[in-house]
UniProtKB/TrEMBL annotation:
Family named by the database record: Belongs to the glycosyl hydrolase 2 family.
InterPro entries found in the cross-reference section: Beta-gal/glucu_dom_sf, Beta-mannosidase-like_N2, DUF4982, Galactose-bd-like_sf, GH, GH2_Domain-Containing, Glyco_hydro2_dom5, Ig-like_fold
Signal peptide: 1-22
GO molecular function, one term: hydrolase activity, hydrolyzing O-glycosyl compounds
Stated name of the protein: Glycosyl hydrolases family 2
GO annotation terms (biological process): carbohydrate metabolic process
Annotated ranges, domain Glycoside hydrolase family: 719-807
Highest taxon above the source species: Bacteria
Species of the source: Flavobacterium fluvii
Keyword list, A-Z: Glycosidase, Hydrolase, Signal
A Pfam family it matches: DUF4982
C-alpha cells in the first residue's frame, strides 16, 4: 500500500475511533427519541402487560402511530373505529445509566392510556389530549437487563374517567377526530439525582423550565432574557446549585452565557433556580419570521454540570389594548384559520412526520394568514413547535365542545389548561390562550386568568374565550360568524366562513359541471343531534367559494385598525385544510378548506394571498383571476378578479375588455366574457393609474403526459418506516403546462425501499388507500412511506395513452435505536421569508371618530347611552309608536361624512332610515345587510347634532345565507323565531369625519 493509501486508512481508523468515542461520551443523553421498535395489537388481550407475554405475532410499528389512522377521510368521523389497543416495547437503558433518574414522556394518547413497566402498573392518563409522563426509576431494570413497557389504550367515544364516571366534554363525535392509541411522539429522559424537572404537572407535579423575555426595546433590539427552572434534589444531602444559561442563535453562534445565583437545595426539595441577562442585537420572532434561539440551562453543583435542558424558543413583545393586537410594537390585524387540532391527512391521520407539520402550517403563512385558532383541544407539541418555526401565531385552547361546563367537567377544563400552559409556555408562537370554544361564566373566566397568571405571568399572552364581549376579566373575545368591534380588549371572529366545496369543482361550466348549491343535504350530515334540513348554501364550487370568502372578509377589512377608536381585530376562516369532521354535503368530510386534504391549493388560497397581504393595510398589491382559461369553444361567462389594486383591467389575447366593476373592495367583475384560446390577463392599477400588479393564465393544450414532482423532508427522507414523501402528479400538455380540466385516472406503482400510502379524490371510499385514483383539475397527490432500509424509492405513474413518468427518492440512514439519538424535529429549518417586524406603521388612518356626548329620545331614554357604550350586548330600542327617532349630541362640531351602525338582525333586516345633521338631511334609504356593522356614506355636512329616524317597518331578507350549527342567530332585539323586531334597535352607532 502506498503512503497515500496508508494515510487514508489511518484517517478512516481515527475517524471511526473518534465516532465511537463520541458515541460513548454521549451514551447517557438527557433526552431520547423513544418512537422506534414498538409492537401493536388491536383488541383487548389478557396479561399483555406482563414481561413474558408472547407478542411475536403483533404488528411492528414505529410511533407516532394511531392504530385506526388508515381510516382517515375514508370513514365519517362518527364511524372511526374505537376500542382497546395495546402497544408494547422491549428496551435496555444505556450504559453508565445506573443511579440515574428515568422518566417517560408521552406527547399524548387517545383517549386513555394505562402504562405498565415490567408488569407493574405505573399510572393512567385519561384526558386524551395533553402530554403526560411518569417516573420509571423505581421500576426500571439497569443495563444490560431488558425492560418491557406496555401501554393499554382505549379511544371509546363515551370513555369515562375511572374515579368519577365523568365523560370528557371534548371527546366529541362531531369535532375531535378520534385517532386512537399513541398518535404522538414518546421520549425517554435520563437525568442525575439533581435535575431540572419536566413540565408535566398532572402526573409528576412538576413545572419544568420557563424561558421568557422582559424589558423589551424593539427599536434597539434589546431585551432581558430570563430563565426560571424548577430543580429537584433527590440526593440524601443538600447541594449548592446554580443555573448556567447559554443562548445560541440560528447560525450556531453563542450570543450569551451567564450564571444565576447559587442556592442550597435541600434533600428531596424542589426549588426554582433563576438566571437572567440583558441582551442586545436580538432577532425578534415575528409573523412569517420564525427566528428561534437555542437556550440551554444547566444545573451546576460544585461548578460541575449535572443536568442540562435544551429549549428552542423565540423572543417577541406583545400587547393587547384599544381593541388591537400589537406584536413587537406593530399593530397586526388577525387574519387566519380556525383549524381542527387533528390537522389530519388521508390514510395517516394526524401522525405525520414533523416536517409535514411545517409544510402544512407554512402554507397558512404563505396564504398570508398570520393566526391559527386550533379547535377544540390543545394541539400536540409537534404542531406547536412547527408554528414557532414557520412564524404562525397560535390561539391555544384547553379543551371544550360547545358550551360552558360544570362540576367535574369544569375541573377537567382547568386541569387541562394548567397542564397545557406549563407544557407550552416557552413557545413564542402562542399569543392567545382559549378558555372555551364558547362563552363561559365570569367566575370561570377568573379561574382561567388565575391559572395563566400563576404559570405564565410573563409570556405576553392574552387569555379569553369566544363571545366574552362584555367580560371584565377576559383579555380578548369575539363571535363565531359575525364581526365585533371594541375600544378595549381585542375582539376577533373565531369562525367567520363555513361554506364548503371540493377542489374538483371549478364552476358550472367545467366538467363535472358543479352548479353552486348542488351536492345535497343528506341525513348523514353530522351536525349536532340532527341533520341540517337544507345545506345548499354551503355546497359551492371553487368560483363561488373564493368569491364568498372575499365577501365575508370585507366586513372585517372595513372595520380594521385605523378606521376609528372602535375597531375589529380581525377573524379566522374555518377551516384551512379539508377535515375529517362534521360536514354538510354528499362527501363524508368537511370541505371548507383553502387547500384540500393533501394541501393542494384551491382558488380560496390565492384569494387570501391577495386580500390578506400586509399586517393591516395592503402592503403589496396583487391580483388573482378566479378559475382557469380552458373552457369549451366560445363559452361566455362572468370573470371575477380578486385584487387589492384600486382598478383592474382585463385583457383576452391582449385585447382590453375595459375596467371591472368593483365591489366589496377586492372583487372586480367582468360580465359576459367570451372564451378565446390564448391568454387572459388582469392588470391592476393604483389611484394614480400606475400599474401595480398583474396575473395571467394561458390556455393549456390537449393532455399529453404525466408529470411527477416530490415534496420531502429538508435534508432527505429518513429511512425509518415512518417518514413520508408527497408525490404530485399533473396531467400536462406537450409544452409541460398543466391541463386544468383533466380528470384522468392515474395508476401508481412503487418499488424499492418505500410503500404506497395513497391520497384522496372524489369516488368510492374517497379512494383512500387505492393505488389508482384520478387527478382533479389536472393535479393530485399521493404519499409514499419509507422503509427502515436506506436506499432508493421509485414511483411510477401511468394513465392510458398519456406519456408516463417516474421519479426517485433517496432515503437517508438514521438512528433507529430503541433509544434513538435523533429527535423527530431535529435540524428542521425555520421559515423566515417575511423578514423581521417592519419598523413602519402597519396602517394609515382613514377617518376620525367623533365622540358622542349624550343622546335624547322620547322612548327608553334611560337606555339611550347603550347605543354607544362600546358593549355589543346592550342596545337602545324605540319601544312605542312608528316614528322612532333618537338624537345624538357630539362632543364637538364636525364635518360628518360617514355613519356606522350595528342594528339588531343585521344579516336579515333592512331598516328604512333618515339621517339629519343639524336638521339637514344627509341620508335617506335602507340599511344594507352585513355580518354586523354597516357603513353609510352621507352627504358631508358640518354640525354637532345627528338625528336618526325610522321611516317604516324593517324588511326581511335572506340574501346572506348562514346555516348556524348551534341554531344561535344574531338575536339582539329579535324575538323568538326572528320575525318580530322592536323598532329601530341600535346596538352601537358611530360618527366620522374625513382626515383633514
Amino acid at each position: 500500500m502506498n503512503l497515500k493509501g496508508v494515510l487514508y486508512a489511518f484517517s478512516f481508523v481515527m475517524l471511526f475511533a473518534n465516532t465511537v468515542s463520541a458515541q460513548d461520551n454521549k451514551s447517557v443523553k438527557e433526552k431520547y427519541n423513544f418512537n422506534y421498535g414498538w409492537k401493536l395489537n388491536v383488541g383487548a388481550v389478557e396479561e399483555a402487560e406482563k414481561p413474558g407475554f408472547n407478542d411475536q405475532k403483533w404488528t411492528v410499528v414505529n410511533l407516532p402511530y394511531a392504530w385506526n389512522q388508515a381510516e382517515a377521510f375514508k370513514n365519517d368521523i362518527r364511524d372511526l373505529s374505537t376500542g382497546i389497543a395495546w402497544y408494547r416495547k422491549t428496551f435496555q437503558l444505556p450504559k453508565d445509566s445506573n443511579d440515574k433518574k428515568v422518566f417517560i414522556e408521552f406527547e399524548g394518547v387517545r383517549q386513555m392510556g394505562e402504562v405498565y413497566l415490567n408488569g407493574t402498573f405505573i399510572g393512567r392518563h385519561e384526558n386524551g389530549v395533553m402530554a403526560f409522563g411518569f417516573d420509571l426509576t423505581p421500576y426500571v431494570k439497569p443495563y444490560p437487563q431488558e425492560n418491557v413497557i406496555a401501554v393499554k389504550t382505549d379511544n371509546d367515544w363515551e370513555y369515562k374517567e375511572k374515579l368519577t364516571e365523568s365523560e370528557f366534554q371534548w371527546n366529541n363525535i362531531r369535532f375531535n377526530a378520534n385517532y386512537g392509541g399513541i398518535p404522538k411522539n414518546v421520549f425517554l429522559h435520563i437525568k442525575s439525582k439533581v435535575y431540572q424537572t419536566l413540565p408535566l404537572f398532572s402526573a409528576l407535579g412538576t413545572t419544568g423550565t420557563y424561558v421568557y423575555a422582559t424589558d423589551f426595546n424593539i427599536t434597539q433590539k434589546k431585551a432581558v432574557i430570563n430563565v426560571s427552572s424548577q430543580v429537584k434534589n433527590e440526593l440524601s444531602i443538600p447541594v449548592k446549585a446554580q443555573l448556567k444559561v447559554n443562548v445560541v442563535d440560528m447560525q450556531g453562534k453563542e450570543v450569551a452565557s451567564f450564571l444565576g445565583d447559587s442556592y442550597t437545595v435541600n434533600a428531596n426539595e424542589k426549588t426554582d433556580l433563576k438566571a437572567s441577562k440583558a441582551l442586545s442585537n436580538l432577532n425578534f420572532w415575528s409573523w412569517g419570521y420564525g427566528y428561534l434561539y437555542t437556550v440551554t440551562s444547566e444545573v451546576l453543583v460544585d461548578n460541575k454540570s449535572v443536568d442540562k435542558v435544551v429549549i428552542r424558543t423565540g423572543f417577541r413583545k406583545s400587547k393587547f389594548e384599544k381593541g388591537m393586537v400589537y406584536l413587537n410594537d406593530r399593530i397586526i390585524q388577525m387574519k387566519g384559520y380556525a383549524q381542527r387540532t387533528s390537522n389530519e391527512w388521508p390514510s395517516v391521520g394526524m401522525s405525520v412526520p414533523a416536517w409535514m407539520s411545517d409544510y402544512s402550517n407554512s402554507l397558512m403563512v404563505k396564504s398570508n394568514g398570520n393566526l391559527v385558532r386550533w379547535m377544540h383541544v390543545t394541539p400536540w407539541k409537534q404542531d406547536i413547535e412547527s408554528c414557532d418555526r414557520v412564524g404562525l401565531i397560535q390561539a391555544m385552547p384547553a379543551g371544550d365542545s360547545e358550551q360552558d361546563a360544570k362540576g367535574r367537567q369544569w375541573g377537567h377544563r382547568t386541569e387541562l389548561m394548567r397542564d397545557a400552559i406549563i407544557y407550552n409556555r416557552n413557545n413564542p408562537s402562542i399569543l392567545f390562550y382559549e378558555s372555551g370554544n364558547e362563552s363561559i361564566s365570569e367566575e370561570h373566566m377568573k379561574e382561567m386568568l388565575a391559572i395563566r397568571n400563576t404559570y405564565d405571568p410573563y409570556g405576553g399572552r392574552a387569555i379569553g374565550c369566544r363571545e366574552m364581549l362584555d367580560s371584565k376579566t377576559a383579555e380578548y373575545g369575539g363571535e363565531m360568524l359575525y364581526i365585533n368591534k371594541s375600544a378595549k380588549h381585542p375582539l376577533w371572529a373565531m369562525e367567520y366562513s363555513r361554506d364548503e366545496g371540493l377542489r374538483k369543482f371549478w364552476d358550472e361550466f367545467t366538467p363535472p359541471y358543479h352548479k353552486n348549491g348542488t351536492g345535497g343535504t343528506t341525513p348523514q350530515n353530522s351536525i349536532g343531534a340532527k341533520a341540517v334540513s337544507d345545506a345548499t348554501a354551503y355546497n359551492r364550487n371553487q368560483d363561488t367559494h373564493a368569491i364568498e370568502n372575499v365577501k365575508r372578509w370585507y366586513d372585517y377589512w372595513e372595520m380594521r385598525p385605523g378606521t376609528g377608536e372602535r375597531v375589529s381585530s380581525g377573524g379566522v376562516n374555518i377551516v384551512f385544510s379539508d377535515s375529517n369532521t362534521h360536514y354538510r354535503g354528499q362527501e363524508n368530510y368537511r370541505r371548507s378548506g383553502e387547500v384540500d386534504a393533501m394541501r393542494i391549493p384551491k382558488d380560496n388560497f390565492y384569494a387570501h394571498q391577495v386580500i390578506w397581504d400586509g399586517w393591516v393595510d395592503t402592503e403589496k398589491p396583487q391580483a388573482h383571476i378566479v378559475g382557469h382559461w380552458n373552457y369549451e369553444k366560445e363559452l361566455i361567462k362572468d370573470i371575477t378578479v380578486i385584487s387589492s389594486a384600486d382598478a383592474v383591467e382585463l385583457f383576452v389575447n391582449n385585447v382590453s375588455l375595459g375596467k371591472g366593476t368593483q365591489s366589496k373592495r377586492f372583487l372586480f367583475t367582468f360580465k359576459g366574457v367570451q372564451f378565446k384560446p390564448g391568454t387572459i390577463k388582469a392588470v391592476g392599477y393604483n389611484k394614480s393609474g400606475k400599474q401595480v400588479c398583474e396575473n395571467e393564465i394561458k390556455t393549456a393544450g390537449q393532455p399529453f403526459a404525466l408529470k411527477l414532482s416530490k415534496i420531502e423532508r429538508p435534508g432527505g427522507t429518513l429511512a425509518n418506516a415512518n417518514d413520508l414523501v408527497i408525490v404530485q402528479v399533473e396531467v400536462v400538455d406537450d409544452k409541460g403546462n398543466r391541463c386544468p380540466t383533466a380528470l384522468d385516472m392515474i395508476d401508481f406503482e412503487v418499488k424499492g425501499q418505500g410503500t404506497f400510502v395513497g391520497g384522496i379524490a372524489q369516488g368510492p371510499d374517497n379512494y383512500i388507500g387505492a393505488s389508482s385514483l384520478p387527478v382533479e383539475c389536472g393535479v393530485n397527490r399521493i404519499m409514499v412511506k419509507s422503509t427502515e432500509t436506506e436506499g432508493s424509492i421509485t414511483i411510477k405513474a401511468s394513465s392510458g395513452s398519456l406519456k408516463s413518468d417516474a421519479i426517485s427518492v433517496k432515503t437517508v440512514k438514521t438512528d433507529l435505536g430503541k433509544l434513538s439519538m435523533n429527535l423527530p424535529n431535529e435540524n428542521l429549518p425555520s421559515f423566515t421569508e417575511k423578514g423581521p417586524t417592519p419598523a413602519t406603521p402597519s396602517f394609515k388612518k382613514t377617518r376620525l371618530p367623533i365622540a358622542i356626548a349624550r343622546a335624547t329620545t322620547d322612548s327608553n331614554q334611560a337606555d339611550a347611552f347603550k347605543s354607544y357604550d362600546d358593549n355589543e350586548l346592550t342596545e337602545w330600542s324605540y319601544g312605542k309608536g312608528d316614528n322612532a327617532m333618537i338624537e345624538y349630541e357630539l362632543e364637538r362640531e364636525a364635518n360628518i361624512n360617514q355613519v356606522v351602525m350595528k342594528l339588531a338582525g343585521w344579516k336579515s333586516k333592512k331598516y328604512p332610515i333618515r339621517i339629519l345633521v343639524d336638521n339637514k338631511k344627509v341620508f335617506e334609504g335602507s340599511t344594507p345587510l352585513s355580518l354586523g356593522y354597516v357603513t353609510l356614506d352621507v352627504t358631508p355636512t358640518k354640525g354637532k347634532k345627528v338625528q336618526i329616524e325610522l321611516l317604516g317597518k324593517a324588511k326581511k331578507s335572506d340574501a346572506i345565507k348562514l346555516v348556524e350549527v348551534t341554531g344561535k342567530v344574531d338575536q339582539a332585539g329579535l324575538k323568538e323565531g326572528g320575525e318580530t323586531i322592536q323598532r329601530l334597535p341600535i346596538i352601537e352607532v358611530e360618527f366620522y369625519e374625513p382626515i383633514r
